[in-house]
Design a protein that fits this description.
By secondary structure, the chain is mainly alpha-helical. The protein is built from seven helices and no strands. The relative contact order is 0.10.
């Protein structure tokens, strides 16, 4: 995990991406879910297009829950439950940006069901705000 954290913390986004991709190739598919989820979540942030970002967010969700689908699944043993709302929101935002509003809404619904797992801190406030923003964007006109 130390190699993953070091790659994530690099200030050069492209260098960070290159190191994470190298680690992904070495660890996929047998790595620990937390390792894979962390790498995929950060690789999504370095993607150059929406479809690529969504693909990495889906990989992060799959590593965390065993599925890419908007299902209410328990996280893998080493994944904190408080991380699931953010993962579902990232996937929902990708689908929204690609125009697939129905899939986006289904992933938002999963985030809503998990929102109570968030801590009452800055992270929880950030994710709750993201949920409200996305709910507003996906509300019927």
């Amino acid at each position: 995990m130390a190699d993953i954290l070091a790659a994530i913390q690099l200030s050069d986004k492209q260098q960070s991406r290159a190191r994470l991709l190298d680690l992904w190739e070495r660890l996929w598919p047998g790595g620990a879910p937390l390792q894979l989820c962390s790498m995929a979540h950060h690789l999504a942030d370095t993607a150059t297009d929406i479809a690529g970002e969504l693909e990495w967010d889906l990989r992060a969700l799959e590593a965390a829950t065993g599925s890419r689908e908007p299902e209410d699944r328990k996280p893998s043993l080493d994944i904190p439950e408080s991380g699931l709302p953010s993962l579902y929101l990232s996937v929902a935002e990708g689908y929204r940006r690609l125009g697939d509003l129905e899939r986006a809404r289904r992933h938002v619904a999963c985030a809503e069901r998990r929102i109570d797992a968030l801590p009452d801190d800055a992270y929880g406030t950030l994710v709750r705000g993201g949920l409200r923003r996305l709910q507003g964007l996906l509300a019927p006109a």
